[in-house]
Amino acid sequence: MHPSSCDTFVALPPSTEGQRVIFGKNSDRPCDEVQEVVYYPARDYEAGTKLECTYIEIEQSAHTYAVVLSKPAWLWGAEMGANEHQVCIGNEAVWGKESADGDEALLGMDLVRLGLERADTAEKAVEVITELLERYGQGGSCMEDESGFTYHNSFLISDRKEAWLLETSGKYWAAERVEAGHRNISNEYDITTKIDKEHPEMREYAKHKGWWDGKAQFNFARVYSYATPGRIGASGSRYCEGKKMLRKNDGHITAETMMDILRDKDSDINMEGMFLTTGSMVSVIPEDPALPGVHYFTATPDPERSVFKPFIFVNNIHPLKETTSPDYGPDDPVKRKPRFQSKPNRKHELFVKHEVVAAIIDSYKDKGKKLTESMRKLEKETMTRMEEVLLHGVKEPDSLVNLFSNSVMEELAVYTKK
């Protein structure tokens, strides 16, 4: 299957306003897949505890950080998310010369969640993900069916001060530090000659396979990709259009800028069709550690027809019930072998109501326009309130324990009213 989905962005000072890091991602997945937004608090574990990921069991760490995740409802991992230390991670499917058809192992989405649960900085997340990759490998179907849709993974990881691009091919990997400006990735290898960390045998393996002669300057994308590196910058590509939009707003990139980019359909960044944008995320992370990060999620398909709702890490956050899908436990068809013999209903409350709204917007022009305007008005009012928190901090933490869920209820109220 050819690269056809997902775009991840990060912008750091001086490309942003207000000394903030802005992270954004569209998760482009099969059109019938439900994406949920869930919260898991920090937790301690006894030595020897096992952790069941999507397909395999691994060793649990002694402590996991609190995380908020946007994830396909059928699997353990996540497409994107953030943790209490304001680390944000999103992953992309990539293909290269190395076959991606391996045994069931860790999915790239499992590695996203594991990186968030176990790392308090972006650089530490690189270490966590690569150590797990080398120990357990990556593999298994990335779709809830028997299609055998598999791929390698790239990751864009940010914190309050920097970002890292991590690209993998099997167990081999390369990582590049991004300390300023902006960066976006799509579904092609993008690390070239600037490599700040790497698998110790990555170059020798490429030499052994005949992909690199050991003499020419080592270019990770050129060596490991099956496609010509120039293809990624081809006219009209999502990567190229995303980069253009970042450049156009350079020095003035805000959360609103990132949302506009994620909503752009002319570029296919906001994707429609068999693969569509099933969930979107934008995070605003002040460099000042005394200030909170604000993480916005849609939890519904098509950001143009969705509301970005805020989440802030505080103590005693309540479960995000309205965006949590039904849990089928050990009877889930994903966990039974042979897998994927059926598909249960995974629609959460917000998803069900949003389906109706999307149909109205499609079918009734005037009514749909008014509904969309009301959704944007709600979003803008919420973001104005969040700006006060970003500037002055959290004064009453208890008032934010239901922030995301309350925002969902406000969205549902708009649907009902209109």
UniProtKB/TrEMBL annotation:
It holds the Pfam family Peptidase_C69. One of its GO terms (molecular function) is dipeptidase activity. GO terms for biological process: proteolysis. It comes from the Eukaryota. Residues 322-341 are annotated as: Disordered. Belongs to the peptidase C69 family. Secernin subfamily. This is Secernin-3.
